[in-house]
Design a protein that fits this description.
9 strands, Beta-Lactamase, 11 helices, 5-stranded antiparallel beta sheet, 259 residues, alpha+beta, Arc Repressor Mutant, subunit A, 2 domains
Length: 259
Amino acid sequence: MLPVNGSVEAYVEALAGAASTAEIGARLQRQLEQLGFDSFSYVHARPPLGKKIRSFVPVGSRSGKQVHEFLATLPDGWVDHYLSHDYGDLDPTFQAAMHHILPFRWREISGRNDLTAGQRRVLDEARDHGIAHGATVPIHGPDSGLSTLNVVVGGSERHFDEAYQQGYRDLVWVAMHAHEAFLNLAEDVAEGGRVRLTDRERGCLQWTARGKTAWEVGQILSISEETVLFHLKNVTRKLGVFSKHHAVVKSIVQGYILP
């Protein structure tokens, strides 16, 4: 068990009495300030199967796409800009969180040469809004869920590094308990409201969503083209749709796969 300081233990106890997501957010902000961070965002890339997270269409959204409820104390100007430009589809921290278990600094991904122009735009415009030095805590599970806790220090990079190095271990503890408290307030979806997709079905969908043909998906997953088509046919049946393209759209909207 990781050692935690008394303030984190008190925070965990306080979460048990939170009656709303707003209370969770306020208590999370106070705890992160004690760890040296200025602001945060807690967002769902893919809610757990079986949990219904409230969602809404952001004001000014170009696509009209629904966004899952989130918590944030980042500057309102950046939050509004992010939502109205549908940056959840481009945010490179989501993609990185899929492949990380432990927290990572944003500068660890900003220097990668495989980022798309859109992903770099998200990072550059965040800096323009004063959000330059931050880190992401990936939160995996339960039930195929993926959420993230992002923490920011508004001062210099040195100030951020000091807070990150000192609070690194506690960040994981804090994120897990905030996530559990939030999910405890979320509604359970009726048993008939969700379907169970296998990992292979989800993989075929994910690569299809990225524009790959059935043959290309088979090469990536080391299975035959016929097997890919078999899995995609199963998915369309489970989701009650009539084409793989409709299945991709429905899977993204309902949180089965990331866009």
